[in-house]
Structures are given as structure tokens and as C-alpha cells.
């Protein structure tokens, strides 16, 4: 592999990454008397209208499968540089061409038909919440106490806080005892663990990634839609877009053809169930379907343009996580933070759990959509970056 290729693989390795399951122990108990104004690092500058317009235009062209030798070559090089057991990718260009490929290191082995997208599923949950807002069934400033008064600070935590990770709620995956429990853990168990821990900060005061917030959002969706979370998301997203290679996983569901996370005996969480995260990450899909979903979001086909822009209006630095910013179920990553020579910015979401990682993104520079998922070890961000590097910049 040339040094240029190696640089491209590394350039995005720090982009759109998520925190490890273990998180630092809280050092003090925070006592709150109400909401507190945000006091963390500066927010990212807002995106321009032209950038949303370009993303929408690139996402509305009719898709048609294409064969691309250059993408094939880049993907094979990326896969060869990783320790992934299975890896899949899709790229959709502004003219409507969509390329996709899946590889495994075992020649002749049956290829997985779907991959687990981990926290990329948060973008789906946030989409359903914003649809409820658009339908007038919910407001972003609605207090959490309406649905979960037992949570610390529930009277001051808003739906928007849950979406943006500014609630201060303890993230259940940080609990060592919970991670040590084998198998499936229902949402009630996750919320009981989180409710027993003090808040990291008062609502609104700071940013901290919290899977607990998205489990609560799933509960809100169920309460307002009157059906289980996986059924609500299937109706609101999967069926609406006719995503035939996407499944919102039901509790304990075993899906034929799913690339199972691949871990070592030393990997924390090796005996967990992929359906435990619930609304914090419950999507199994092909890379092409994830690209189709993300195109639909940014081209305003799942909610209106005003709400699309609202998702990116306040972009919080993801302190302690990576050189990215978080909005309402979305991430923005300036690749220059990982590589000073890079000039691209991605709008997307990443995800990961022991043995599986994924990313979906829209490239502002290339006006193209990309999705990569893998099992085993490797960087989906670096793979996505290498795939995009071969595309021409758009004016």
C-alpha cells in the first residue's frame, strides 16, 4: 500500500467515532435546582443553506446500480488493510449512481445480507421523534417527567436534551455490572441502572454521550404511537421508503443473514445481545439501504426541510469522544481535525459495539453519500474516506 493510500485510510479514523463502552467514573454528585445554560466548549458554526440544498439535490436523484472499478479497487485495498471478518459498503453519487459491495476473507463463504449498524440507529430514532413533532404530537421542549419522572432531573430534561445528549443522564453502558450480565437486557433494566446513578451535570449545562437518552426516546415513541418501538420505526421509516433490506430489530430477534459481531474472549460485552440497545441502536440493514435512508433524511423526504436544518442548528463538540459535533441524532465531522490537509466535512452518524462498527455520511466536498459497516477490527470511517477520495470534488 502506498503512503498516500495509508494516509487516506488514517485521515478519517478519528472522525465520527463513538465512546468506548466503559466511561470514566463520576467524581462528584451534582445537585440541580433547574436547567443550566450550556457552558461547554464553543458550538460549531452553523451550516449554510447552500450546503443543505446540495445535500437535498444529491439525495433526490433516482438511484441506479453502477459498476465502478475504482471503487472496487479502493474497497479491496481498505478491506486488506483492516482485520475485519466481514465488511460492506455503498456509495451513492449526486448523479444517482449507487455502487455496493460486501467482502469476507473466506473465499467461497456465504456473504452476509445485512449488518448491524449500532448507534447509526440513533439517526432513525431521532427521525421518528421529529416526525412526531411535525405531526403536532410532541414538542422538543416537552419535559421528560411526562414519561419517566423517576429519572434524575426529569422535570428539567427536555426531549431536545435527549436527542442532543445534553440531559446529563448516566449512560447505562458505563455500568460495569450491567456489562458483565450475559445476554439480552430489556429497556426497563437499562433505565433502572441509569436512574440509580447521579447526573453528570444539570440539564443543558454540558454535553455527554448517553445511550440512556435514546432508550427514553424509544419509550416516548411507543407511548405516542401506541405500538412497540420496532413496529413504529418500521412503519415510519422502513415501509415509507420501501427499504427491503432493513430490519428494526425486535427484542431478542435473531435475524438470518446478519453479520454477527466478532469479538475476542477479552472483549468487554462479548456475551451481550445486539437487541439490548433498543432505540439507542436497533437497525440491521444492507449498506445500500442505509445510504437510501440517509439520502431521504437530507432530502427532506422523512420530515420537512425546517426540521432537517433544526437537526444541525446546535452542534455540540463531542468532548472526550472524537473530533466531531453532535446535533439532534446527527454528527458533523470536519476531517481537517484528523488530517490538516483534508478539506471535507461529513454529515452523518457513526456507531460501534464490541465486534461491530459502522458509519453513514454525506460528503459536502464530493456531494456523495457513503455507508460502511464491518465486523471484527478496523475503521469504517477510514474505509469511507478512501472510497470518497476517488470521487471528484463538486463546485
List keywords for this structure.
31% helix; 395 residues; alpha+beta; 13 strands
Level of helix content? 25-40%
Report the radius of gyration as a whole number of Å.
20 Å
Helix and strand composition category: alpha+beta
Strand tally: 13
What does it look like?
The protein has 395 residues and is α+β, with helices and mostly antiparallel strands. Helices cover 31% and strands 17% of the residues. The chain is built from twelve helices and 13 strands. It has a nine-stranded mixed β-sheet with strand order 1-3-2-13-12-11-10-9-8, with helices on both faces. The protein has a four-stranded mixed β-sheet with strand order 5-7-4-6. A hairpin with a 4-residue loop joins strand 9 and strand 10 (331-334). Helix 1 (3-11) packs across helix 12, helix 4 crosses helix 8 and helix 4 packs across helix 9. The two termini are 30 Å apart. Mean pLDDT is 91; it is low at 1-26.
Summarize, please:
With 395 residues, the chain is an alpha+beta fold.
List the SSEs and their pairings.
Layout: H1 3-11, H2 49-58, E1 64-65, H3 69-81, E2 83-92, E3 97-103, E4 114-116, H4 121-134, H5 159-164, H6 176-180, H7 187-195, H8 211-225, H9 229-241, E5 246-248, E6 258-259, E7 283-285, H10 287-298, H11 305-311, E8 316-317, E9 324-326, E10 331-334, E11 345-353, E12 356-363, E13 368-377, H12 380-389
Parallel strand pairs: 1-3, 4-6
Antiparallel strand pairs: 2-3, 2-13, 4-7, 5-7, 8-9, 9-10, 10-11, 11-12, 12-13
